[in-house]
Amino acid sequence: MSQAHEVLKGLSVPLSVLEDSERREQLVALVRLRADDQLIVFGLLVSLTVCILVWLWFFEFGKTNVAKNAVRKLSYQVDLNHAPQIELLQLPGIGATLAERIVEYREEVEPYQDVADLIKIQGIGVKKRESAMPYVFIGE
Asked: 38 with 86, same domain?
C-alpha cells in the first residue's frame, strides 16, 4: 500500500507524519539550522568571500596594472627629422598639439640639428625636453 507524500523543505514526508502536529514540529526543527549554526555558516561565507576578493586583488588586478605600465614605455627611439606625428605622440609629455608643432617646425623653419632644439617649440620647456631626450635622436 502506498502512502501519499508531501515535500517539506526538499524532503519527501508521508502525509501521516504531517497530520501529527507534534511530529511535524520535530521534523521541521531537524530541517532548520540552529542560530549558532547559522552564525557559523554566515561566518564561513564571509571568510570565503574575503579570501576570493584578496586573491583577485593581489593576483588578477596586480597583473593588469603591471601590463598597463609596460605598454606605456617606449622600446625604440624616434627620429625628430623624419618621424610622423603619430610617433611623436608616444613621447612623454607630448600631445597632439606639440607633435603638430614639432612637425611644422622641421618642415617650415629648418630641420633639427640637435635634440636640444626641441626647446624652440612653443610649449616645450626644459622639463618636457629632458623627459623626451632619451627617446629621440637626429637622423641623417
From this structure: no
What is the enclosing helix (H) or strand (E) of 40?
helix 35-55
The model carries a pTM of 0.47
Same domain, 124 and 92: yes
Domain tally for the chain? 2
84 plus 64 within the same structural domain:
no
The radius of gyration of the chain from alpha carbons, rounded to an integer in Å, stands at: 36
Helix (H) / strand (E) containing 12 = strand 11-14
What pLDDT digit, counting tens, does each position of 95-108 carry? 999 999 999 999 99
Which residue from 139, 140, 138, 125 is spatially nearest to 94, judged by alpha carbons?
A: 125
